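User: Quick sanity check before I run a bigger batch. Here is a single chain. Can you write out its predicted 3D structure?
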Amino acid sequence: MFKGFKGMFGKKEDNEILQQTNRETEEINGEIVEEDQIEQTIEEDVTEEEVAAESTEISQADAMEETPGATINIGNDESTHMEMDATEATVEKKGFFARLAQGLSKTRDSFNEKVENVLKTFRKVDEELFEELEEALITADVGVETSLYIIDRLRTITKERKISESDEVMAVIKEIITEILCSQENTLTLAGKPAVVLVIGVNGVGKTTSIGKIAARMKAEGKKVILGAGDTFRAAAIDQLQVWADRAGVDLIKHQEGADPAAVVFDTIAAAKARQADVMIFDTAGRLHNKKNLMDELNKIFRVIARELPDSSREVLLVLDATTGQNAVSQAKLFSETADITGIVLTKLDGTAKGGIVIAIAHEQNIPVKFVGVGEGTDDLQEFKAQEFVNALFDA
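Assistant: Done. Predicted structure follows.
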């Protein structure tokens, strides 16, 4: 299979915002929307609108986004009224792609260089090309099993479509990866009140940080969130979660260090009910060195939740560090043997060339990726969108 490794791998542009609309048509609630409202600076976090502005001219509708539900009349044509909710969705989509494209730059460069070096070497589609592509995918952290699957599908499709030139192969690889990632449901299921989100993961992967960012995101969406500090055995875990709860502006239920996590989850549920929370996010221990103890602990937590919240949905999110590459895939496998994982939170994607593990996790473990971290800011933990991930992986 291996014939030696081939190949080595290795704006913010100022957009002029031109608005010629009459000032009378820009009045909303007695205020004039000025151009500089578009260029707000928020410390530490880059807003999605600013990132979108890097790649697209901001429309007049974008300039009025601070007035939810408002409409804009451009000129005298009433048919040009635009719903702000739709505008905000467009800005969010562009913002996600821009952040993701930037965060995936290392992965994209590594992946594309490895594959393209092979395709440039071979002009014809033959078995030798498939073998070299298989090697390139494996070294791009797509994983052995997933790489074999992609090459087998590639053989089938090229034969069916009578593809004989190598320059047509990259599009087929993109198509196959899209099939893998888009076959899963990547959005959180939040049914019942409160909906339950359990978060697990080994130390150092960004579990506590991810919980805080998810909580902040949900609160910004108008949800009432309450956190539970169930990782009671790791030193400082409770204090760290308190810091993030304060940042997000949400309540935290906690006990003393070493307390029974099942007791903490019981009190968190009681508080969530009393305070009419929409979502309860519970931090759980993530020790892999003793799977029996972890399983026993999780089973106790699950039993309490099933008894107290029988009608609520339950998400079990596993936090993985993208920089660990195939080790993250191994962690996903081990945790899946212990708990029913419903989704992956993949952190530090912006700092690694090993983003190909997203494909491996989705295919080999059949676990959807639900959030990806593409930066340090609170807004840089993004909901995973499979098609946009593929587009960002192949097209800058």
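Residues 79 and 247 are 43 Å apart (CA to CA).

User: Great, the batch can go ahead then.
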